[in-house]
Amino acid sequence: MQYRPDIAGDCSRFETPEECRQTDYSRAVSLIKTAKRHPHEVNPRAAIRLARILQENCEGTPTLASRRFMRDTRIRVCGALWQFIASEGMTARVATIAPKSWRLSPDALVTQAPERLLSRVRSDLYKVGANSKDCWMIGILHGEYERSSQTFLPHLHLAANPKMIEMIDRLRSLPNYSGSPIHDEAQTRVHHPIQVKRKPLTNLPVPLTYLAKSYWPARTQFKSASGKYQISTVKQKIPEPYHSMLLLWLDQWTMDDVTLLIGLRTSKAGLIRTSR
Questions:
Q1: How confident is the model at residue 185 (pLDDT cuts 50, 70, 90)?
Q2: d(CA 84, CA 161)
Q3: Phi and psi, residue 237, nearest 5°
Q4: Which of 151, 230, 242, 276 is the most exposed place for a label (fewest CB within 10 A)?
């Protein structure tokens, strides 16, 4: 009970079990409707199977497509990280990595295996020195749907020690992580491959809940009056059939598939450092 991010401190924004139950029911209804309206975009049999699971299992279905399951996962993962930082006296920062090549159409997303995406990030981090024994991080795949370009934007939310943050900054020297703008008018131009919050984490566990999210939102990028591209702060539901395509894709994977660990491993006692 000591490391429960859903009941500790200022976690009023942590989703409640009832909110998650309602979301899963809504997802089930949408899956059934989409199976009928868009049989070429989604597999009707798979969509109806997943809809039944989301409707019938009130205890939190073990699928990444369930918000109830992801709530339970957030509690476990963020709690384990909180315990690790507190018990080991660790200093941590949070960051986001979004390689340029990860801007994917819905059809492209559903053909991707998340472990392949993460293995490329791991390989790139090792190229810049992240295989040092002084580095550790935990990252979890998340994403959002960009309405203007009709693309998914997967990215990696992570927590890391200051030494690993140095390695993440070095990624900017690689083309897939550089801050150069996108010039294709068919795409919106706001893209930040690497974002780092450099101040020490305070008010734990609130900033750690950023690591794992229970849903992928839709957002809009637009051109302001000054001519600059901006990202709307309003998060919306992903339109169909793309939301159902996403849910069916998530349903194929486990938390291990969408988690990147460097310098850490999981144990019954929680997160522990690896020896090199």
A1: very low
A2: 12
A3: -80, 140
A4: 276
Closest CA to 99 of 193, 188, 191, 195: 193
User: 155 is written with which tokens?
Assistant: 């990215």
**Distance between the two ends of the chain, CA-based, in angstroms?**
32
Residue 262 pairs in a beta bridge with: 137
Asked whether the beta carbons of 72 and 199 are under 8 A apart, the reply is: no
Query: What is the enclosing helix (H) or strand (E) of 189?
Result: none
Which tokens in the block code for residue 4?
């429960």
pLDDT by residue (tens digit) across 96-117? 999 999 999 999 999 999 999 9
Alpha-carbon gap, residue 99 to 174, rounded angstroms: 10
Instruction: Quote the tokens at residue 200.
Output: 């020490």
Amino acid at site 174: L
**Distance separating alpha carbons of residues 65 and 24, to the nearest angstrom:** 8
**200 backbone dihedrals φ, ψ, rounded to 5°:** -55, 145
pLDDT at 187: 47
Question: CA-CA distance, 146 to 152, in Å (whole number)?
Answer: 6
Gap between the Cα atoms of 89 and 91, Å rounded: 7
Tokens (6 digits) for 8: 């500790």
189: pLDDT strictly greater than 70: no
The secondary structure of the chain in percent helix, strand, coil, rounded to multiples of 5, reads 40, 20, 40
The encoded tokens of residue 22 equal: 């309602």
Three-state secondary structure call for residue 29: helix
